[in-house]
Amino acid sequence: MAQRKVLLVTGGGRGIGAAVVRLAAARGWDVAFTYAGNAARAAETEAAAKAAGAQALALQADVADPQAVAATFAQVKERFGRLDALVNNAGITGPKSTLRESTDAIWETVFRTNVLGLVACCRQALDVLPQGGAIVNVSSRASELGGAGEWIHYAASKGAVDTLTIGLAKEAAPQGIRVNAVNPGLIETELHAAAGMPDRVARMSPGVPMARAGSAEEVAEAVLWLLSDGASYVTGALVPVSGGR
Ligand code: NAP
Predict the structure, then answer these.
(1) Cβ–Cβ contacts within 10 Å for residue 112, how many?
(2) Closest alpha carbon to 68 in 58, 76, 60, 79
(3) What is the Å distance from ligand 1's center to 89 Cα?
(4) What is the CATH number of the domain that holds 32?
(5) In ligand 1, which atom is closest to the CA atom of 13?
(6) Are 111 and 160 in contact (CB under 8 A)?
(7) Strand extents, DSSP E, 94-233
(8) CA of residue 75 to ligand 1 center, whole Å
(9) Is 12 part of any domain?
(10) Range of the domain at 18
(11) Cα-to-chain-centroid distance, residue 23
(12) In terms of CB atoms within 10 Å, which end of the chain has fewer, N or C?
């Protein structure tokens, strides 16, 4: 029997990351994933992946902490002995604020998590992914929409994710590693409430061309396609999953 491939998802305890973990498990991957602090939700996701027939490993690790990132990759190597793909999903918005209201501390926290954490994971992955390996970065449509009045700091961090996706795709192509991004639009998760806007999805859904928010599962479908051999000639792509937004 062919060995199952191993996927690492950052921020896989809840939301889009958890949907990726569950779908990957159902599609034949073994899955390791990290979470920041919500152990109960991570345990639920881990149990769901195991119920789908996968080996699964939940690890508490702050992606903004380089030592925790290094430890994560070491634990994946110890447990699975291989890593075939990485989904850089962990991300935070920071609080709602205009640029004038925002502090350097907000910018630093958001960039340390969304950009530097992702860079640290990519570096580690490039050392271990095989030819045929893949990285998918979870960016955002905010990178082009701009986040005005809500979270320019967050949108700018996702602009950095878009650009480094394009650049790294070119650097990693000779190694046979594909690097792509999905750019979700308005997705129904707990992220909006965490930013202090629990009504954001309901308020903004009518303005989406498809007149509804998307689900975490709909984003996960695009991620799994980009990881699959079906996307074997796709690299450096930024794939909107946004209902036209
Ligand atoms: P979410 O529901 O808030 O879930 C975030 C997940 O990431 C949680 O499992 C959380 O862990 C984990 N996490 C947060 N900070 C972390 C850190 N420093 N280190 C490790 N893990 C961390 O968010 P989501 O809506 O699923 O968002 C996932 C990704 O999609 C983010 O990159 C976000 O920017 C992007 N995105 C979301 C939307 C949207 O509308 N929801 C739209 C565009 C892009 P705990 O469970 O332990 O807290």
Answers:
(1) 18
(2) 60
(3) 7
(4) 3.40.50.720
(5) 9
(6) yes
(7) 134-138, 178-184
(8) 22
(9) yes
(10) 6-241
(11) 14
(12) N
Which atom of ligand 1 has the smallest separation from the CA of 139?
44
Q: Take atom 33 of ligand 1 and give the residue whose Cα is closest.
A: 91
Q: How far apart are CA 17 and CA 190, in angstroms?
A: 12
- For the stretch 13-46, pLDDT in tens is 999 999 999 999 999 999 999 999 999 999 999 9
The domain total for the chain is 1
For ligand 1, whether the C-beta of 121 sits within 6 Å is no
CB 147 within 8 A of CB 155: yes
Residue 1 lies in a domain: no
Tell whether pTM > 0.90.
yes
Q: What is the distance in A from the centroid of ligand 1 to the CA of 16?
A: 7
Q: Which of 154, 159, 179, 180 does the annotation list as catalytic?
A: 154
Determine which residue's CA is closest to atom 12 belonging to ligand 1: 11
pLDDT of 183-208, one tens digit each? 999 999 999 999 999 999 999 999 99
154 tagged catalytic: yes
